[in-house]
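Field reference: sequence -> structure
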Amino acid sequence: MDNSFFDSIKPKIAERLMANSPKCKRTGNKFEGLICPKCGQPEAFCDLDKGMMILCHCNNKCGASTPIKEVYPELFKVDYTSIPKENIAEYYLRNERGLDTSKFKFEQGKVKGKDGIYYPTAKFIIADGVEFHRLIGCPDVKDKTRNFGSISGKVYKAYCEENPSVIYVVEGIFDALSLMLSGKSAIALMGCSNLPKEYYLSDKNKKFIIALDNDPAGHKGIEKHIEFFQENGIKPSVILPPSGDDWNSLLHKKKLQPDDFEDYQYFGDLHTAENAQKYYEVFCHRKEVNGLVFPFKNEMFIGYIKETKEGLTEYLAFKFCDCKIDLQFSIENDRLEYQPDLCHRLKLTNKQGQIKYINCKADVFANLTGFKALMLHSKQVFLGDGSHLTKLSQYLHHQNTEVIRKCQYLGWDAKTDCMVFTDFLYTKEGIRKPINSSGFFPD
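Structure field:
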């Protein structure tokens, strides 16, 4: 991985970290006691030599991993007008993507945008008459990729050797190149919906490892590939990056080491478990937890470990709700300071993926009959008993969600010194802030 760009901005990042967390301890490029951007506690750390991430120690309460690029985006902006036109693609690939450009072929390209302006691109030849372009230096353009020619059935090959026996199947070209530079041959589909059947059938003896993104589109692509492979007598493996990451971002974080791939294989095994019992068994092979509450295919389960008379271990999964339940946020009514009053906004996702939101008063979690009635009003069924409701309550409250203060009246709010209206407010500085999609005013 090329680190020249990141090395050049490390001193500026260090200055910002020290300024924002003046009480932190610094040893070289390692910082302890940073203020976490997510929870605001001085319990985060960062090692700039190991990755551009701020990691929170507070695992039970936060445990967030925040890319430094999200905290200081202005430090990562590049003025491409100052770079010679013939070097823009190489500069982008090396400095923004962290790729060693001596290991693969690319060209300096250009593409005409809808505004009539020609934008520089990194150009890759996929096949005769098929090109992939990645636009560079155009922050106002949302879709920065362009394909010329049909990519259906085509793949971009990023091989470490001439005829590899193991192939990683990824979504994008930069993901494939990131894996290749980590010693793993890969192909890029240029989209999760692309299924290159002829390529796969040309050599069934290869081992294919499906490594698509850990998002809804990637999950659909995994299912599509598994179905095709099974129909054609090919047994694939599945690995998944952490949610919110791709293989190129993991290259930046230096998280493409052999030990890391054990984690990604574990994530893949969990995702492809054929039933809840198998999911729980896979989970317990890494860490045994008796009484684990977990969602599986948009239903809620609790897992139990049982020892048989023969001394064998059985992993059992009991379904206690026919939808997935998540805690979106909690609403605090602080009208009476000595009498806390919380209402929880629950997100219910049914088997078909349809979502509903319900408000659940805190005392309902202690009332089995009341909670079952609340679920029935939403056409969902809670199948468990009181112990399962207690376990669910503990599971939800371990989700690190926001607590939103309920505003008692429209007009002036003494605690924030803001003028509050139905769907917007004005700060004391006169800044207008709209209510967000979740129905509250963020900080």
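Note: The two ends are 38 Å apart (CA to CA).
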